[in-house]
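dumping this here before i forget
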Amino acid sequence: MRMMSAGTKGSGAERFDVERIRAQFPVLSVQVNGKPLVYLDNAASAQMPQRVIDRIVRYQSREHSNIHRAVHYLSELATAEYEAARRKVQSFINAPSDKECIFTSGTTDAINLVMHGYGRRFVQAGDEIIVSAIEHHANIVPWQMLCEERGAKLRVIPVSDAGELSFEAFQALLGPRVRLVALTHVSNALGTVVPIRDYIDAAHAHGIPVLIDGAQAAPHIPVDVQALGCDFYAFSGHKMCGPTGIGVLYGRAEWLEKMQPFKGGGDMILSVSFEKTTYNTIPFKFEAGTPPIMAAIALGEALDYLREIGLDTIARREHDLLAYATEGVSAIRGIRIIGTAERKAAVLSMVMEGIHPHDLGTLLNEDGVAVRTGHHCAQPVMTRFRVPATARASFAFYNTFEEVDALVASLERAKTVFGVA
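structure:
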């Protein structure tokens, strides 16, 4: 087994009680093919601690009711817990008001909400929307749809061989026809951490609003939307130790008030007649129908859990894991790491000479090592780096250095099995 060097352990690794943390996640005790599960697919979905599972059970068994429109005990209790979860979101991202925090089904839903509510109101023929070359499909396709519908143009910030965006090229794209900048905070395929404050400031200097896809950032680094100055920020619960089917869109009140609702139905209205409908106030204006009540409450519990550990602590721990993994994987001949930006989150995408990523992932699974293989909903990234797919190991604070060793050992075994020199 490799030994950790002082340079890779990091200042906080010795004091981080990972075994205590791991004991809080039931799934981490699962065995795969008779071997301990090594879960390195956290960029797709993080695992859920027992306290979040317990919160789901408590809600479903003792608190479940529809919210907002009844006066009986269960409804008032469920409403209070649902709105308390909204305030936890507000605190987690330091939003000015809980009214600016909209519950969605996830990051994709949140971005589509902005596309519909802002884009279809303010983007016209000849206008431009700026995205980057490292976006997830969720922050490309909605804007393509809007551009096709309105006769607008999608402009793309290029990416270097290291996986870093060109700020100079971005500045050159800014102009009077740009109506929105939609940019990832952290690349899911490369791990690149974008210095988004610089991009936001540059866009705002031209009066252009900015949407940030924070799906890969919010679980791993502190996010302060007021300090960032962004106009919209989106993230998903299932990447933050919470359930699927829940996400958040933060939006500045001044924009949300001007936007048209994405969906029509119950609870997003103040009054309805066959002649006219008056929409509700924010955030309810964008939460039509029965919302994901249980999921929102469970997300609130997950945010409490992450805050108790500390986002700074999480970021340091995951940085140490990434550094250690990068060192180990880089020592394997025939492996190419895709994405070598100076600032990276705990994502390690790789290709191995002579082995397709899907075959590599299948073999790693035989050893209980779970990684993601494919294009990671980022096909333009794969095209840019001239690869069909990658095998992606993504780390969370509950992973261990021994699990990194297991990944490296399994990669070495793959070379032997496939006869790659």
